[in-house]
Amino acid sequence: MQVAVVGAGWAGMAAAVTLAERGAQVVVFEAARQLGGRARRVTIEGAALDNGQHILVGAYTETLRLMRAVGADPDECLLRLPLELRTATGFRLKAAPLPAPLHLAVSLLTAHGLDLSDRLRAARFVGRLRRDGFKLPKDASVAALLVEHGQTAPLRELLWEPLCVAALNTPPDHASAQVFANVLRDTFGGERPASDLLLPRTDLGALFPEPAARFVTARGGEVRVGAAVRALDAGADGVVLDAHAQPFDRAIVACGPQHASALLAADPRLAGVARAIDALEYEPIHTVYLQYPEAVSLPFVMLGFTGGLLQWAFDRGALSGQRGLIAGVLSASGRHEALARPDLAAAVHGEIAVHLPALPEPRWKRVIAEKRATFSCRPGLVRPANRTPVDAIVLAGDYTASDYPATLEGAVRSGVAAARLVLG
Ligand SMILES: Cc1cc2nc3c(=O)[nH]c(=O)nc-3n(C[C@H](O)[C@H](O)[C@H](O)COP(=O)(O)OP(=O)(O)OC[C@H]3O[C@@H](n4cnc5c(N)ncnc54)[C@H](O)[C@@H]3O)c2cc1C
After folding, report:
1. Which DSSP category does 403 fall into?
2. Ligand 1 geometric centre to CA of 408 (Å)
3. With 80 as the cut, is the pLDDT of residue 244 above it?
4. What angle do CA 205, 61, 155 make, to 5 degrees?
């Protein structure tokens, strides 16, 4: 079977690997010059960095499985830490070295920076979700869920809202409580390793897309970069792509949602799917790289910030040996979007400097703004399925229907599901 995969993000490469494993002839078409899509390597000041600092968790089982399959050993490429959330102001929650679910209950009950009544409230909230199988009677906003379960301002500000924004990339007032509960189910509600933090030690290209491409080509497939597909024509002979004279038996459209919609809209049978995609709204993610002298480091590799603009700061020296380099992350929409990039970088430096005495000025600063980083994960959102009304055309991407928010794992699972549909 000959299959075209349009888009070499994590969904497209997961689909291509799954197809190649099963002996299908795969050609991947990627518009950009490099692989990885929204999780890719960028070169800044001569250093291999990422278009945005990413974090994975132990619950990303399909991503970890495929990384192993293509020869990217997760034990080497990722720093695995038992769940630990720390803020610069002293809040600290650390998974206890106990079997699940005690590891989480004890971590909530022993968290630093919250009073006992709040710790009990948080534990009761998670206990209640667990008893209900993490299924809510009806979807609402995360903000409403937290109020309904009596989560106080310190709990919301130090624990739940940062988790919501990090996982769903959507402000709590608009974020889906059910998807948030799904994330808690798979990370906190599973076995202890599921809640582990997995922080990339390599750039994102080397983590999966590039070894995946080598895996596909070693099995007779092709991965073409700088090869944008502008039209798809599905007829009796298969699917013809503008970039390829021969029809393919099937095509997996693994572009980001806005590009997928443009490709699908031309076929009247797919106009409904294109409209569903067009209804999605988007959220940005800003990453601020600050290169300090080499001696500068953070007290913990991933440090939370509250009350300002910055949400998380990552010590790239501790992660990947890029000493003195700090990556600041600002997820979702917010007042930081109104700032010009130099002002945003200066503000993030200022917020870190409050907590790191004698922090020198950075040697260089760089802001990467991904305006459409993910879809906005709203309550009751209807997302398109992998299967479309045209059998020969299948969708893959982080935005397709699933109980995950837009994440690497959501993209990989969608790619694997699309490939399995094609393989029948
Ligand atoms: C800054 C940032 C930080 C993030 N942080 C995290 C995180 O910490 N943890 C996490 O799990 N997730 C995170 N995410 C989300 C994660 O990166 C995405 O969910 C995931 O990468 C989406 O992959 P995808 O394959 O579905 O889509 P994409 O990555 O968008 O891939 C689509 C590909 O299709 C290509 N393409 C588009 N049109 C065409 C065409 N016509 N022809 C050929 N190719 C085309 C594009 O160039 C692209 O390479 C983050 C995202 C961003 C942007």
Report:
1. S
2. 8
3. no
4. 95
287 CB near ligand 1 (under 6 Å): yes
Say if ligand 1 is within 6 A of residue 284 CB.
no
User: Is there a contact between 36 and 209 (Cβ–Cβ < 8 Å)?
Assistant: yes
275 Cα–ligand 1 center, Å: 20
| Nearest ligand 1 atom, CA 36 | 49
Domain annotation for the chain: domains and CATH numbers: 2-76+201-280+379-423 (3.50.50.60), 83-195 (1.10.3110), 282-375 (3.90.660.20)
Annotate 65-126 with three-state secondary structure: HHHHHCCCCHHHHEEEECCEEEECCCCEEECCCCCCCHHHHHHHHCCECCCHHHHHHHHHHH
Per-residue pLDDT reduced to its tens digit, 140-167: 999 999 999 999 999 999 999 999 999 9
List strands edge to edge, sheet with 302-304.
302-304, 312-315, 325-331, 282-291, 364-375
